[in-house]
Amino acid sequence: MQQTDGARVEFLHPKNWSKTPGFSNGVAASGRTVFVAGQVGWNPETSEFETDDFAAQVRQCLANTVAVLAEGRAGPSHIARMTWYVIDKHEYLAALREVGAAYRDIIGRHFPAMALVQVVALVEDRAKVEIETTAVVPDGRAAPINTGGA
Fold first, then answer.
1. Are 91 and 20 contacting, i.e. CB atoms less than 8 angstroms apart?
2. pTM of the entire structure?
3. Which has the closest alpha carbon to 39: 3, 70, 2, 6?
4. Domains in the chain, please, with CATH?
5. Do the strands 26-30 and 7-12 form a parallel or antiparallel pair, or are they unpaired?
6. What is the pLDDT confidence band of residue 24, given thresholds at 50, 70 and 90?
């Protein structure tokens, strides 16, 4: 059991399983739940894509996610799970170094339960990635917000 900004969080990883690279197999947490709809890599003020670069779209998706979390008095350290939808897993794998850098810059070294799914298409034609997030904020308090990088 680990304390994260006052929340009780348990990262679930069977002892005999190999170490995971950058995610947790499971997370148990208690508190107020914040659900963030799938965020794409566009400018949220204009709903326009400013790039077709995969890693840059990931960076914008994560920034958009953190902005929505802040509206719910949550931050990156409260994220319990993320589901990433990509239209091309090979493009994701080719950009993994840049994706990792964007993740660490915006989310920090917090590794929730994650899944990555390749899909045929996303609703927004220029979107290369969409990220859906669930966060758990400690019960009964407005938690301090860590807006990234830890």
1. no
2. 0.82
3. 70
4. 2-137 (3.30.1330.40)
5. antiparallel
6. low
